[in-house]
């Protein structure tokens, strides 16, 4: 049983070492051409994504506190704009209903852009 484990280990090491032995030396590596170089426009240069509601509904509050008075509800389908931030709270204007107030940044935030370099 021990000899079969040794034989399997040797075979695995051989298959892993074979591509490394057949690789070209660093001095023979090709220089990237303009076609393979990275593009001039990176996704890091793009503007940030828009804010979105990441739950069914969020309570719009009068102050940036969970204990403040509720003014309305911001639903996922509503259009809104963000004008300022305070900690983890966003001051929004719900364009669908006209209500202005604070919502938690836990549920309303920007999506993250995926940059595949």
Structure keywords:
117 residues; alpha+beta; three-stranded antiparallel sheet; two-stranded antiparallel sheet; 7 strands; SH3 domain-containing protein
What would you call the shape? elongated
Helix fraction, binned, reads 10-25%
- DSSP summary: helix tally: 1
H/E element order: HEEEEEEE
Largest sheet: 3 strands, antiparallel
Radius of gyration: 28 Å
Terminal CA distance reads 47 Å
Uncertain parts: none
Number of beta-strand segments: 7
Which percent band covers the strand fraction? 25-35%
**Assembly type of the shown chains?**
single chain
Strand adjacency order, main sheet: 4-5-6
How is this structure best described in words?
The protein is of the alpha+beta class and 117 residues long. The chain contains one helix and seven strands. The protein has one helix at 2-22, and strands spanning 51-53, 57-61, 70-75, 80-86, 89-94, 100-104, 108-110. The strands form three sheets. The protein has a three-stranded antiparallel sheet, with no helix packed on it. Strand 2 and strand 3 (70-75) form a beta hairpin. It is elongated. The two termini are 47 Å apart. This is SH3 domain-containing protein.
């Amino acid at each position: 049983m021990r000899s079969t484990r040794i034989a399997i280990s040797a075979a695995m090491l051989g298959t892993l070492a074979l591509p490394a032995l057949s690789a070209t030396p660093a001095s023979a590596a090709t220089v990237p051409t303009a076609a393979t170089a990275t593009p001039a426009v990176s996704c890091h240069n793009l503007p940030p994504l828009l804010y979105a509601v990441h739950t069914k509904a969020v309570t719009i509050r009068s102050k940036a506190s969970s204990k403040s008075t509720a003014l309305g509800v911001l639903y996922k389908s509503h259009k809104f704009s963000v004008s300022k931030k305070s900690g983890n709270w966003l001051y929004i204007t719900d364009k669908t209903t006209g209500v202005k107030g604070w919502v938690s940044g836990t549920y309303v935030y920007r999506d993250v852009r995926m940059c595949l370099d």
